[in-house]
Design brief:
About 10% of the residues lie in helices and about 35% in strands. By secondary structure, it is mostly beta strands. Strands 2, 3, 5, 7, 8, 9 and 10 form a seven-stranded mixed beta sheet that branches. Strands 15-16-19-18 form a four-stranded antiparallel beta sheet, covered by helices on one side. Strands 17, 20, 21 and 22 form a four-stranded mixed beta sheet that branches. Residues about 20-25, about 245-255 and about 260-274 have low confidence and may be disordered. Keywords: Disulfide bond, EGF-like domain, Repeat. It comes from Ameca splendens. This is EGF-like domain-containing protein. Pfam families: EGF.
Length: about 270
């Protein structure tokens, strides 16, 4: 964390906290210039340094209350709140006692003068616990997501990748892309085992198959399959296959006509009107 008055100061709720959430502003002070707030996971290391101007000028860092952070008011008791017992120079590790879980407020002073603080040399650090794995031996978010937080949240949580869900992204949702055709209802068992079928389709009347793509009975198939041929897959299961010169199926729902695409004289594929 580099202390500087150049390019790292925010002066409004939007600049400091980004998009607003309900109650966020009331919990976080930001109606004055300050260094952009920082978030840490509990256990992270924090290094602090200062730019060349502040090094030559000489500043010291203090851990203060929220009230003193907002007002930049100083008093004699601040001596016990020195983060380092010397002016800040090269990058130095902040002791763990200053970055326990919770909100921590730091200000920079030059020989006790608060002008630098009022110009923006003050920093709000949120230290949060990490709730992204059930055991230290396991991967964060089971390897199926990222461990993140927002300023309005009290801890780090998993943001799961597509198709994964659960507190630690440990479950797989095979229904997220809706594999069931013809308005079939998809039920996922949440298994992450690639060798285990992770979903089942509940097919509407007259449809069957793993994905409800097959038609029950030859008569039903012939009635709804237009510009195609009914092919028997099983004794009672048929599928509409488009004829030569036609493209893929448009789709059918509850025995409405299945339409194959044909190539018009213009050379473009078109849907036939039924």
């Amino acid at each position: 964390m580099n202390w500087t008055l150049i390019g790292n100061i925010c002066k409004s709720d939007l600049e400091c906290w980004g998009s607003q959430k309900e109650g966020q502003v009331s919990r976080q002070p930001s109606k004055f210039p300050q260094i952009c707030p920082l978030q840490l996971q509990y256990g992270d290391k924090l290094l602090m340094s200062a730019d060349e101007t502040l090094k030559s000028y000489g500043v010291r860092l203090f851990s203060v209350s929220r009230e003193h952070f907002e007002s930049c008011i100083t008093n004699a008791e601040l001596k016990n709140q020195l983060v380092f017992h010397h002016n800040i120079n090269e990058s130095e590790h902040v002791e763990a006692k200053w970055i326990t879980p919770g909100h921590h407020y730091f200000i920079a002073l030059h020989e006790g003068d608060s002008q630098l603080c009022k110009l923006g040399l003050r920093l709000n650090v949120s230290v949060k616990t990490q709730l992204c794995r059930a055991s230290p031996l396991l991967r964060l978010c089971s390897g199926n997501g990222v461990c993140q937080t927002e300023f309005y949240e009290g801890a780090y949580h998993c943001r799961c990748y597509h198709r994964y869900f659960g507190r630690f992204c440990e479950r797989f949702d095979a229904c997220s892309d809706n594999p069931c055709k013809n308005k079939g209802v998809c039920l996922s068992n949440g298994s992450t085992d690639p060798n285990n079928r992770t979903y089942k389709c509940l097919c509407p009347p007259h449809f069957t198959g793993v994905n409800c793509s097959e038609i029950v009975g030859k008569a039903n198939c012939q009635r709804i399959c237009e510009n195609g041929t009914c092919v028997e897959l099983l004794p009672a299961s048929f599928k509409c296959i488009c004829e030569s010169g036609s493209s893929e199926l448009r789709g059918s729902y509850y025995l409405s006509p299945v339409v194959c695409r044909t190539k018009a004289a213009t050379g473009r594929w078109q849907w036939m009107d039924i």
